[in-house]
DNA sequence: ACACCTATGTGGACGGTGTCCACATTTTTC
DNA sequence: GAAAAATGTGGACACCGTCCACATAGGTGT
């Protein structure tokens, strides 16, 4: 932490977000501490207030970054197994759960600030500009278009899918299911993914 | 807050938990503040350390109380609509979501302290001694016994069901789906409950 | 080129919090 | 009835979020 020679920092806002993300990685939303972030960036605590109204504002920015990272992971998984329409939803599920388990702290921070507005911002998108929610929603549209998902089951389907995936992620990382052996977790994920498909389209298989 | 006349409090541990639950109701897990709890009970801050090792220990006790309250709500809903085996799972779902929406702060606090051990304690049970998890699990056993749920789908079924219900609860209260109109929320709950049933038993209806 | 204005960073302070230590008081135990 | 254990008090420390006044840098208009 050599003291910078310019009085100005250059891009303090961004630097603070990066530091905040690192803190969230290490200890979840509660670990996103204003003073510690400024300390890591090498700046006085109050400097943060020129860029964020509040600790909550910083946390919100960190949350966006986390959501973007989540979307990125999902997109990456999607790119790996694109061919059958059916497999896309599974890939997204895999990405969601993989991210939550690989980065539990950041995942928790991503959903720490509430409100749909936060989740649907441009800041919260992956490389191709879609949020996690939109990725899921689009996959369901594809399923409908391809005839795998009957149109009468389409409404509210993303609530079901998202709830199941998100709930699984929360229970696995944060919640009472953490500490499951990796083997068990994997099997559980498979079973849950199966159940999601069945829940969507009763006539499948 | 009349100063008590006995030097000893009587049952400080319990009083602190009650105060903690109240704090959780008002502002979630972060609002469970040691000093404030002692203040409300009318006792010096350090007195808490005779009964709890830590702030986290108090929060854990509050969490147990919250889980017990959740189980109680589920049991109550179960008692209201007992007849057909199928309806029991729906009643439990309704109870879970109703509690989460009625007491979002306490609900969050209930799942704030992690680890399966915490969730399965005796402290975390409803009136008839079953935890939320066990209530769900038992309902699934009943479904299997009555033939509605094929035995080959029984394993890991509680993970699916719990994930979906819990995810829905989190997204509705904490998460991006909060702010949904009550009507929408109700419709979403119905759809999700339908999907859960379909996800469990492919041959239903 | 100079003076101003605004954006940005600094320093110091305040109240609040978790937690530690030493001490006081009550209850229990022998 | 004295010793020991349990319980509550008081004071202190470090840390945090946040407010205020001040210092400095980068631009802007004349």
Describe what this molecule looks like in 3D:
Chain A has nine helices and no strands. In chain A, helix 4 crosses helix 5. Chain A has 205 residues and is mainly alpha-helical. Chain A starts with 11 loop residues before the first helix and ends in a 5-residue tail after the last helix. The radius of gyration of chain A is 19 Å and the shape is elongated. The first copy, chain A, has one domain: Tetracycline Repressor, domain 2 (Orthogonal Bundle), CATH 1.10.357.10. The first copy, chain A, binds a DNA duplex (30 and 30 nucleotides) through helix 2.
List strands and helices in order, with pairings.
The structure is a homodimer of 205-residue chains.
Chain A: H1 12-27, H2 34-41, H3 55-80, H4 85-102, H5 104-110, H6 116-119, H7 132-145, H8 157-173, H9 182-200
Helix pairs in contact in A: 1-2, 1-3, 1-5, 3-4, 3-5, 4-5, 4-7, 4-8, 7-8, 8-9
The structure holds a DNA duplex (30 and 30 nucleotides).
Largest sheet of chain A: none
Gyration radius of chain A (Cα, Å) is 19 Å
Q: Which structural class do the helices and strands of chain A define?
A: mainly alpha
Approximate shape of chain A: elongated
Beta strands of chain A, count: 0
CATH superfamily of chain A: Tetracycline Repressor, domain 2
Rounded to the nearest angstrom, the distance between the terminal CA atoms of chain A is 60 Å
Q: How much helicity do the residues of chain A have?
A: 55-70%
Largest interface, with Cβ-Cβ < 8 Å?
A-B, 42 and 42 residues
Oligomer: homodimer
Task: State the helix count of chain A.
Answer: 9
**Helix-strand topology string of chain A:** HHHHHHHHH
CATH class of chain A: Mainly Alpha
Estimate the strand proportion of chain A: under 5%
Q: What's the CATH topology name of chain A?
A: Tetracycline Repressor, domain 2
How many structural domains does the protein architecture of chain A include?
A: 1
CATH architecture of chain A: Orthogonal Bundle
Pfam families (chains A, B): TetR_C_33, TetR_N
Protein name (chains A, B): TetR/AcrR family transcriptional regulator
Domain HTH tetR-type (chains A, B): 10-70
DNA-binding region (chains A, B): 33-52
């Amino acid at each position: 932490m050599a003291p910078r020679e310019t009085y100005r920092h250059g891009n303090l806002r961004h630097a603070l977000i990066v530091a905040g993300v690192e803190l969230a990685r290490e200890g979840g939303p509660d670990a996103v501490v204003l003073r510690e972030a400024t300390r890591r960036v090498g700046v006085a605590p109050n400097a943060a207030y020129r860029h964020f109204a509040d600790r909550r504002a910083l946390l919100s920015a960190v949350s966006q970054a986390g959501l973007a990272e989540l979307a990125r992971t999902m997109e990456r998984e999607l790119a790996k197994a694109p061919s059958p329409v059916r497999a896309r939803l599974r890939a997204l599920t895999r990405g969601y759960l993989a991210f939550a388990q690989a980065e539990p702290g950041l995942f928790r921070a991503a959903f720490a600030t509430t409100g749909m507005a936060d989740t649907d911002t441009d800041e919260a998108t992956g490389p191709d500009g879609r949020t996690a929610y939109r990725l899921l929603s689009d996959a369901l549209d594809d399923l409908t278009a391809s005839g795998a998902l009957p149109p009468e089951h389409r409404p509210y389907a993303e609530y079901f899918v998202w709830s199941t995936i998100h709930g699984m992620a929360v229970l696995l990382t944060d919640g009472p299911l953490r500490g499951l052996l990796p083997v068990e977790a994997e099997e559980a994920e498979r079973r849950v993914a199966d159940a999601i498909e069945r829940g969507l389209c009763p006539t499948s298989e």
